[in-house]
Design goal:
Length: about 160
């Protein structure tokens, strides 16, 4: 777990540094859409645990709008990270091979307990290729970054405050 945490800390630190140097303007509507998607993902996770969003709202006294608002900073970071990684993939000409594409479709088919051709019909090839290129960009950045875990400031635990 410590090794995985250190790996994630390095990855986050490198991407944060790149985002800090990048110049990009993210429209508010894009951030709101991403935040809404994150709340939808949260609702799906709740449902898998046997809890409805309505029940969660009753327990917490929160609202969907409040959750969307709370999710906006993380949504912005998610968008910025994706855009930066896509730019790195393009600049370094990082692309998925046919073998990697096939392996990813096979992995997804196994994960969703579906036939590969059915997954292919649902998930566009261009999106899978883009995701694989982004993963390659993450690997490229980690291999070429000069960041050690000791240089990474610990993240604040906002829940503890």
């Amino acid at each position: 777990k410590k090794e995985a945490d250190a790996k994630n800390a390095k990855e986050d630190a490198v991407i944060d540094a790149i985002i800090e140097d990048a110049k990009m303007e993210i429209p508010d509507a894009m951030v709101k859409t991403q935040a809404e998607q994150m709340v939808d993902e949260f609702a799906q996770r709740l449902q898998m645990q046997g809890l409805s969003m309505d029940q969660y709202m009753q327990f917490t006294g929160s609202t969907v709008d409040a959750l969307v608002e709370q999710s906006k900073p993380q949504a912005l970071k998610r968008i910025q990270s994706r855009l930066v990684l896509e730019a790195v993939a393009a600049a370094e000409k990082l692309e998925a091979t046919d073998e990697e594409l096939e392996a990813e479709y096979a992995r997804m088919a196994e994960q969703y307990k579906m036939e590969v051709e059915k997954v292919r019909g649902i998930v566009p090839e261009a999106e899978v290729k883009k995701d694989l290129a982004v993963n390659k960009a993450i690997d490229f950045i980690k291999q070429n970054a000069d960041v050690t875990v000791e240089n990474v400031a610990p993240q604040k635990d906002e829940k503890a405050e």
